């Protein structure tokens, strides 16, 4: 038997059924329950039309009403309730033009991508599994529902989803499904960059980021790469030690692609994938710095980098170096960050106000003095004391260093 359902989910299923509708858990949550994993979201498929679902529950959000989805808000969580449906015609392998609401569950399961995602479960734990999802789940196999060529032609994103689930679950892709990916890969060029980015993120943040190599070698990223390199596995598997969110894995991924000639400019690559601009800056700069590092910097070296570049790019640089060159970079950087030693002017035990009292005029000169003090403190953290810094600033004021 599987883990018990949260009360708010069970209430949704029961309320729908009490009113004479069919209602089942579907998709990822069923897959996760059957693997004894805690689902991170709850999807219910029902015979009720969206308006009927809206009328049944006091607190709802019409999330995707056109596609049949209503979010039902419970006391401690939410449930996505979607009317049984199938896609109408697909225009160009991107997104369906329309959806058609259905009366029964089986057809709804038939439009889903993979057998392991095409199961339903009622609140007693009874499973509906028309495509052999349980067997594939047990054997660790990603297999399309129906003819894989057709399914990928309908929606090219499914090819990236296949790689994503294989990375997240550690599953293998069944041969027919894999051949179809190789055949249909060029259709991925028509996908929106945002959808590609979201799946690639999930691959990179998974326990098996090296599976991103499959996305590259299948040709699913061709629209974003200048060539299709091989042998990324060893380097990409080192991404697994990096943080599972944020920039580190993206930065290191860029650096590996650049080293193998698959991209020439990490910034352009990430812009093409519509990453957020702060993230692009940190990753692209970090990928460059990480490649340039020669050996693990000493603490003053890290602090100078942190001062000049800011924290985010330096974290990315350490991650990149760790992947390209070997271990130790991140640990050394973390030690510096935890030491509390100053690497930003605001971390000095003296501020602009104090310098003005010493006669420094507000503006460039004051900024330069703060920087001079910081550069000293970076090399001599023990001197980050107010009294010492005031003395030093006074001395500098009396004997200004020659202009460079
Ligand atoms: P996750 O745990 O990452 O949320 P998930 O299986 O729930 O995984 P979702 O993207 O949330 O994935 O989609 C929910 C369900 O909708 C899937 O399990 C699948 O049945 C179906 N689905 C989602 N995207 C597609 C698609 N492009 N083609 C066919 N079915 C899809
Ligand atoms: Mg989901």
UniProtKB/TrEMBL annotation:
A Gene Ontology biological process noted in the UniProt record is: tRNA processing
Q: Name one GO molecular function term.
A: tRNA binding
Q: tRNA nucleotidyltransferase/poly(A) polymerase RNA and SrmB- binding domain location, by residue?
A: 170-223
Q: Which residues form a coiled coil?
A: none
Needed cofactors:
Mg(2+)
Any matching Pfam family: PolyA_pol
Poly A polymerase head domain location is 23-143
What CDD domains does this protein map onto? NT_ClassII-CCAase
* Keyword Translocase in annotation: no
> Carries keyword Cell membrane?
no
Alphabetized, the UniProt keywords read:
Magnesium, Metal-binding, Nucleotide-binding, Nucleotidyltransferase, RNA-binding, Transferase, tRNA processing
Q: Which InterPro entries match?
A: Bact_CCA-adding_enz_type3_sf, NT_sf, PolA_pol_head_dom, PolyA_RNA-bd
Which family, according to UniProt?
Belongs to the tRNA nucleotidyltransferase/poly(A) polymerase family.
Which NCBIfam families does the UniProt entry name for this protein? Answer: PRK13299.1 (NF009814)
Annotated protein name in UniProt: tRNA nucleotidyltransferase (CCA-adding enzyme)
State the species of origin.
Papillibacter cinnamivorans DSM 12816
The taxonomic lineage of its organism, from the top, reads: Bacteria, Bacillati, Bacillota, Clostridia, Eubacteriales
